[in-house]
Specification:
The complex is a heterotrimer. By secondary structure, chain B is α+β, with helices and mostly antiparallel strands. Chain B contains nine helices and 14 strands. The longest helix of chain B is centred in the middle third of the chain and has 18 residues. Chain C has one domain: SH3 type barrels. In chain C, strand 1 and strand 2 form a beta hairpin. The chains are: A alpha/beta, B alpha+beta, C alpha+beta.
Chain lengths: 382, 361, 85
């Protein structure tokens, strides 16, 4: 496939690896913000190509992982009501709330539909005028324009049986939360290429300046990520802290103005709770007043609740990049993708699940137990 | 234009060390999940921890697609498979063809020539007679192609709403004229062959099931593998083990086989064929083709020096026309499968956890 | 986060701004995609698609940058090598 295959070239990848190895003179910790990048890094084994000095920290950029427990519970409650069809991206179905997950609700007879696009949910609402259709609108800036359009179209076409359960989060406030936290380890960022395709790169300049941290907006294919790392390491070695754009084939400095306009028409910034991290001011989106009639929480009178989050795993620290998944005592033993303790073990792009799946886990099922190399051993081998 | 983001600095309190709690509670499995039937890790666990201990015997111990039964002067292969697929008809096949092919393929994987099948129909009240007729016709044609007879059967009807229209169970018996093909015969140095491209069946069905509006044509690979397998064995190739790919895709078949054989496998991602359209679908759905279902593909383990001859034989048949070598058995070990990724780096291939769902992330 | 895939626009239909749509091919899988946010996309263009919405047009010239970067850094290395030799 054009614009995919050429960026997965093994020879070019090893040339990039040589370039990075030649540039680096001391240890650096770089965080890839986006879960899509984490997925590619692990799936293609990119870390094995990097010199020992460069450590990648997997960031909080997985909307599934950071959606708070309370909202999953609300989705579960809606899906359990007889007259409601709850539509969701496939990713959200296995994420456990405080009691159960959407897949189980579906198994027990709740109406849960997997939607590829919010527009599919709108179509379902059109076709089922006797039912209430709720779309579980999760995501970062990349997904917000699509969800905004669904709301806008529902308003235009007066589709009154459609509403959205909004759990939108924004990337720059999360990056700032990480940089300003005690014990921050991140020295450079690979910025999220698709978020920036929508929002542009301007809002990252103040961050780079204030925290003296290089930010390289990066794509998602192996060569993109390797080039992003190379650019970031060069900045670090030269003592620069600038915003650079590796993913220029998709990202324009000003972003996608059409998308931002529609997004701003429907949504406004507001405080959001991040699963495992806590509340971050202005880190999320909520419906503007003019569109609140499409707010599922208001329409169905869902009460706000606070869930006690059990303290058995370190996923919050993993999401902030302060710990690697395999540094958690529960990793691969108490916590596996089949029985997740924390959300990063649920989503396929969650840092823990990605580690478990692609890098071996040491405690796998009975037939492969014992000899599987742990992730660290894997890394050192090459 | 209204501004969406603000750059307010964040209070440190929420992020102070130690203030971070675990988001999700422990979830044990006190009831059956969909993933218990998904062909991945939970299926495997159910079999290992519940069924094997309960029914322990020598035939079961081989952990193969079918059981090999010794009758003194004759040896039979025996297997069963239940088929639940929604929708009942999909591009390239239907539940009837699937029910016949699945079972004859399991027999063929044991190295047996399939002879007889049984069929159990569990039908939901209200299923159009025309639908059942089409399924039966499809079974007849698939059985003819595989050279088997359907010799016994059963029909049950369940209340409307208690079944997906139609479930079919088939069991099959085949005759074994040679040494059984079992994982324990796999040797270091064996070549690993794959009979065609990956992920077709899963993508064809998922496109329909999830109501995704794919307009390009992807046909299921659903097919009987009896003819090519018999040709392979008749040609005198010293096949050590055969395995058909099913729900968990190539990755799951490899990991299970490596575990049973006690061997380390290594495959090369760039050698595993995936049709361009199927790849496109996998890319937009966020699925890894290594884990997507096939219903007419096999992997074969055989001595490297016989790989060329085996490929030549397999490629004479349409259903295995895309046969190729994808890797080799490295050494004895604990059953790890490694994959050389597209960019030339080795990583561990693990079993599927839960069901693969389309993702946006 | 944010799985988005490049695909080729085959045809364009519908009215701007909100109902503009296109048939987009991803290696042969064809899907109807909203072009509301990329109204200047034309047949033959590649667009990056996320959850049914095109978010940008792939800039063919910029797409070569990755390889130009590689050439330039390696070229630099060779120069450095000559200088030190």
């Amino acid at each position: 496939m054009k614009f995919i295959d050429e960026y997965r070239d093994a020879k070019a990848a090893s040339r990039f690896a040589r370039d990075i190895a030649k540039t680096v003179t001391r240890p650096w910790k770089i965080m890839e913000v986006c879960g899509g990048q984490t997925h590619a890094i692990i799936r293609f084994g990119i870390e094995e190509l990097l010199p020992g000095e460069v450590t990648l920290i997997h960031g909080p950029g997985c909307p599934v992982c950071v959606t708070p427990l309370e909202l999953i519970d609300k989705a579960v409650e809606l899906a359990s009501r007889p007259n409601i069809i709850l539509c969701s991206f496939g990713d959200m179905l296995r994420v456990p709330g405080s009691r159960t997950d959407l897949l189980t609700v579906k198994a027990e007879g709740g109406r849960v539909r997997v939607a590829y696009s919010p527009m599919d949910a709108l179509e379902i609402a059109r076709n089922h005028p006797d039912k209430e259709v709720v779309f579980f609108a999760v995501g970062f800036e990349t997904t917000a324009p699509a969800n905004a359009m669904a709301v806008l179209q529902a308003a235009r076409h007066k589709i009154t049986n459609f509403s959205v359960l909004v759990s939108h989060v924004l990337v720059p406030p999360a990056m700032e939360a990480i940089l300003s936290s005690q014990g921050n380890q991140v020295q450079g960022f690979l910025g999220a290429g698709h978020v920036c395709t929508v929002m542009g790169i301007e809002e990252y300049h103040p961050l780079a300046l204030r925290y003296r941290v290089p930010i390289v907006v990066t794509g998602f294919e192996p060569l993109d990520i390797l080039q992003g790392i190379s650019m970031c390491v060069k900045q670090l070695e030269e003592g620069r802290a600038e915003v650079e754009n590796q993913y220029s084939r998709s990202v324009r400095p000003e972003g996608n103005l059409n998308a931002i306009r529609t997004m701003s028409e429907v949504f406004e910034a507001g405080t959001r709770k991040w699963r495992g991290i806590g509340e971050i001011p202005n880190s999320g989106l909520r419906l503007r007043e003019a569109y609140q009639k499409f707010d599922a929480e208001l329409r169905f009178g869902l009460a706000d609740s606070t869930c006690e989050e059990p303290a058995d795993c370190i996923s919050g620290l993993v999401l902030q990049g302060r710990k690697k998944p395999d540094e958690c005592p529960a990793f691969g033993t108490l916590c596996t993708p089949d029985r997740p303790l924390g959300a990063p073990m649920v989503s396929t792009e969650g840092a823990c699940a990605a580690y478990y799946r692609y890098r071996g886990n040491g405690t796998a099922h009975s037939t492969t137990a014992g000899g599987t190399k742990g992730p660290d051993e894997q890394r050192k081998r090459s | 234009m209204k501004k969406i983001n603000s750059m307010n600095p964040v209070k440190g309190s929420a992020l102070a060390e130690g203030a971070v709690a675990c988001p999700a509670p422990v979830s044990g499995h006190t009831s059956i999940q969909m993933a218990h039937g998904g062909g991945g890790r939970l299926s495997h666990e159910l079999i290992e921890k519940l069924f094997f201990p309960a029914f322990a015997n020598a035939a079961l111990e081989e952990r193969h697609d079918g059981a090999v039964l010794d009758l003194g002067d004759e040896r039979l292969a025996f297997t069963t498979d239940s088929h639940v697929v929604s929708p009942l008809f999909f591009p390239g096949g239907d539940i009837g063809k699937l029910a016949v092919c699945g079972t004859v393929n399991d027999l063929a994987m044991c190295g047996a020539r399939p002879l007889w099948l049984s069929a159990g129909f569990i039908i939901e009240e209200g299923l159009p007679m025309e639908t059942l007729k089409r399924v039966v016709e499809s079974m007849r044609s698939a059985a003819g192609e595989a050279g088997v007879q359907l010799v016994t059967g059963d029909t049950k009807v369940v209340d409307r709403g208690k079944g997906d229209g139609l479930y079919i169970n088939t069991a099959g018996i085949g005759r074994l004229n040679r040494t059984g093909l079992v994982p324990s015969r796999i040797r270091p140095g064996d070549a690993i062959l794959l009979s065609g491209d990956l992920a077709r069946h899963g993508i064809a069905v998922m496109a329909l099931r999830e109501g995704l509006e794919f307009e390009g044509g992807v046909e299921s690979d659903c097919a009987s593998l009896v003819r090519p397998v018999m040709a392979l064995l008749d040609a005198g190739v010293d096949v050590h083990c055969l395995r058909d790919l099913t729900r968990g895709g190539l990755a799951t078949a490899l990991v299970e086989t490596a575990g049973t054989a006690g061997m380390q496998f290594r495959i090369d991602e760039t050698l595993t064929p995936v049709n361009e359209t199927v790849r496109g679908a996998c890319e937009i759905l966020g699925l890894d083709p290594l884990y997507v279902a096939n219903e007419g593909r096999l992997i074969a383990f055989l001595p490297e020096e016989q790989a060329e001859a085996a490929l030549e034989t397999l490629r004479r048949f349409d259903e295995t026309g895309g046969a190729c070598v994808i890797g080799r058995v490295m050494r004895e070990g604990s059953g790890t499968v490694t994959l050389k990724s597209a960019i030339g780096v080795d990583r561990v291939v693990d079993m599927l956890s839960g069901e693969q769902l389309p993702r946006i992330c | 986060m944010c799985l988005a895939v490049p695909g080729k626009v085959l045809s364009v239909s519908g009215d701007p701004p909100y109902d503009l749509a296109g048939r987009v091919s991803f290696g042969g899988i064809v899907k109807e995609v909203s072009l509301a946010y990329v109204p200047d996309a034309r047949p033959g263009d590649y667009v990056i698609v996320h959850v049914g919405f095109a978010l940008s047009k792939v800039d063919e010239a910029e797409a070569k940058r990755v390889f130009e970067y590689l050439e330039s850094t390696e070229g630099l290395d060779e120069l450095r090598g000559e200088e030190s030799a």
